[in-house]
Amino acid sequence: MTLLSLLAFAGLCLLLSVTPGPDTFLVLRIALNRASAGVAAAAGSASAAVVWAGLVGLGLAAILEQSAEVFRWVKIAGGIYLVYLGVSSFLKTRKAARAGMKEGADAPLPYSRWAGFGAGALSTLLNPKVGLFYLAVVPQFIPHGGNTFGTAMILGAVEAVIAFSYLTAVAVVAYKAMTWLRRPKVNSAMERASSGIITVLGVGVLASGAAS
């Protein structure tokens, strides 16, 4: 495998990473409350990507492509897990609200680092599109007669590094944005702006009613 081939594969991985998917939104959701948990989720997703590369190297991913039934059940499992993540996040938000959190106080952390890592790993492991990506693309970069498993693992490591870097950036930016929005001055400005907009709308309604 030449350097040019490796760069071409890295370019494909970058395109895959920047395309919004379940992993991106999961990391974004987790990082809103704790940046380190979001980074851990990114690490979990990257680690699971290496596992998929290993499956391709061993030829196991071929079974996923050839068996529509297996593919269907993996999709169902992935969908159920994503629904679980969404529902559990909603319930945790309601629980925090009922606990009477004060504005500006430290909110309970829905995810620990280990929980974030596990969520990221499972999200990627249960996403058959990741396996199909490796199954369709990785073999094109494996030299004929070469070490299939070793080459697949190298390519998997490249994809994992790129994905981790991108998802980590997403986690940090998301957390910084939430931190900025929670600042008293910013919060006050937003409240004033929203109050002003509501007032203007109210005046418009009154004016329209008086003219009719």
Automatic annotation (TrEMBL):
Cellular localisation = Cell membrane
Instruction: Tell me the membrane topology, using the record's own terms.
Output: Multi-pass membrane protein
Q: Indicate where this protein is primarily found.
A: membrane
Residue ranges of the TM segments: 36-61, 73-91, 111-137, 149-173, 193-211
**Mind listing the UniProt keywords for this protein, alphabetically?**
Cell membrane, Membrane, Transmembrane, Transmembrane helix
Record GO cellular component, one term: plasma membrane
Per its UniProt record, what InterPro entries does this chain match?
LeuE-type
Which molecular function GO terms apply here? amino acid transmembrane transporter activity
Signal peptide positions on this chain? none
Q: What is this protein called?
A: LysE family translocator
Q: Which organism is it from?
A: Arthrobacter wenxiniae
